[in-house]
Amino acid sequence: MKRKLCYVILLMMLMLFTSSCSRYHYYKGKETKYYYTNLLSNEINLNNSYRCSITDTSYYKEKELSSEDLKVIPNFFSSLDEKSFMDRPKDLPKKPLYKIFITISNEKYVINVYSKDLASIYPWDGFYEMDFINMSKVPYSYNLYNICNYMIPRDKN
Fold this sequence. Notes:
The chain is α+β, with helices and mostly antiparallel strands. The chain has four helices and seven strands, in the order H-H-E-E-H-E-E-E-E-E-H.
């Protein structure tokens, strides 16, 4: 009798342990180079109320974008194409010149602006590597470096 009870308990434990492994998630990587950019762009298009602030990483000055200046963000996204996205650059600076924080309801995204030609986008709690963007073909008025430099001047020209 004890032996049968032992087998039953052992069998139940085995079934319990093997069934709990069925929820294993395997992350194989980003599907595209513009994964996070697409998420952020869609969030902005669906939700008109969002906050955006710019921080200068050298002096830690911060400015909130006005509703008029916020129009640059969706225009920036609409000016991008698939060729604008790239792999992680080998000469990526350790620290960006500016950080742009975009808050939409409960989601928070970060855009690192490294230069006039390079930016990266990722969510605050992202799992994958950030999206890297070549901004060299983005119009001057939609370039994120230019809006950052306008809000918190760095260049004298």
